[in-house]
Amino acid sequence: MRDLIVAWLTDITAPFWKSSLSIDQFVTALQETMHMVFFALLFGCMWGLIQAIIVWTTRPQGILPNKVIYHGLNPIINALRSLPFIILLIAVIPLTKFLVGSSIGTWAAIVPLTIYIGPYIGRLIEISLLEVNEGIVESAQAMGATPTQIIFKFVLPEARSSVILNLTTATISLIGATAMAGAVGAGGIGDLAISYGYQRFDTSVVILTVIVLLILVQIVQMLGEWLAKIR
Amino acid sequence: MIQFKNISKHYQLKGQTLTALKQINLDIPQGSIFGIIGYSGAGKSTLIRLINLLERPSEGQVIVNGHDLTALNAASLRQQRANIGMIFQHFNLMQTKTVAANIEMPMQLLGWSKAKRQQRLDELLAFIGLEHKRNAYPDELSGGQKQRVGIARALANHPKILLCDEATSALDPQTTQSVLQLLKKINQEQGITIVMVTHEMDVIESVCDHVAVMEQGQVIEMGSTLSIFSQPQHPTTQTFIQTVLQQHLPVKILNNLENQNHHSIYSLQFLGTSAQETVVQAVIKQFDLSLNILFANMTEIDGTVIGQMFVQLLGNEQIIQEAIAFLQARGVKVQQAGVQA
Q: In terms of pTM, does the model score above 0.90?
């Protein structure tokens, strides 16, 4: 399947493709990007969901206020959020080695990507939860709902649309961050744009990367908006 | 049924203590429709939220169905809350769920089977008259329909108490009446005790049998709706009554009087009987004076008619006094009413 697609792409791009980079290499890079985005988003969503629920629940006006957890967690989230990704990438190398066994490669990039996007997604989901009408929580409490039921049966379903739109934004940020993952040998199309386009003055690679990223972002945005609309 | 014992509620705000409720003692009898009226900030919304402990009192006890709610642990409190339905000013329906799913919510929380939920849902939809809106979303409904769904949701698991927090304040007068009549039907057919908070006296007038008037965190007057309407004591209560029952003669009528002797104007209040015309007739026949009816209105509260009439009595002072005594002897409340501050 992959071979067929690569052959077909090579064929149709042959007349104007004047680069030392093969289409095969480009498709491999695209796969690496998708791989990183998919897993970092998956782990990031888990992180974000848990973080958002804890912060929302324990905030002073929350359903289970807890000053220690709330005020303890906030500075940690802010600290993680304040690190530029390229710094984070290097700073967490010991952790990456411990978790993945290596500090180089696609899987190794997923660790810092998750740490980068997790707290961000958490903040975005938190905003979505805060947008839910206070009255919904009050009516749930009046029905005798437990805190778990309030979160999973009332607040999260009500916040769903807003959460999806926010996740769309986060996914697009994540695609941007994967471009830097080349710094730890993770590959990806962003890495191609730097190593071929920037360092070897191969403009056609830059143009192709830009076009593919544009399409990718467009698809993610449309998918997000469509998912947010259905109920 | 519902008892407040020495309830106080304080808030801490920027180091200052604000008192929302002061020493409230209140008894809400079973099967009644109990109205709590007051201006914004009087503490009435805080008070109604004590009944299912959405607000916790700083001092005192809330006793509902024989349970002191303030002493219950979280699980028992949730169990008690499931027996108390509540509807809200802004309905608080889930926008992402259909009418049917919204109404099923409390039943789901209690773990009812699908068959049992469906059966109850059908009953409730028929009761509120919205069978055709089963699969509609709240944003496709009118305000009155949303509140009906709110009512169905609140009644889903057969509660004994229904709390209404400004339930009709966001509705137009006509829809308000239809929702109020639905509430009255619930009270009469199912014997559910209804507690409603409002700032509109006509809501109290239409459905409540008991009323408490609140001001600055205190209950300033309380009693049967009829007694509050016929004999309001506190100035605030009188102002509320004024909104539905004219307590003073409208200034316009006063200014158009031929005889500007305002001391000759009296208000007559008739209670419970429709015999006011015969009494007035008798006065005119028996006494040598001129009785001039300036303004009259009538309202029915809890099945009893309250009539209010403004008259100008002109003639011999002695005869006027005798006529007043005659009226009073027949249960008419007579007050000099012409001079308005």
A: no
Tell which residue, B209, B214, B227, B226, has the closest CA to residue B29. Answer: B209
What's the pLDDT band for B280 if we cut at 50, 70, 90?
confident
Specify which of B9-13, B78-82, B118-122, B282-286 reaches the highest per-range mean pLDDT.
Answer: B118-122
Same domain, B217 and B285: no
The Cα A94–Cα B229 span in angstroms is 78
C-alpha span between B243 and B228 (Å, rounded): 14
A144 in B contact zone (CB under 8 Å): yes
Q: Are residues B111 and B6 in the same domain?
A: yes
> Does B261 lie in the same domain as B127?
no
Note whether B108 contacts A: Cβ–Cβ < 8 A.
yes
B229 in the same domain as B183: yes
ipTM of the assembly? 0.83
Residue in chain A lying closest to B153 (CA):
A143
- Residue A58 within any structural domain of the chain: yes
Bridge partners of residue B219, in order along the sequence: B214
Across the interface, whether the CB atoms of B109 and A149 are under 8 A apart is answered yes
Q: What local confidence, expressed as pLDDT, does residue B341 receive?
A: 40
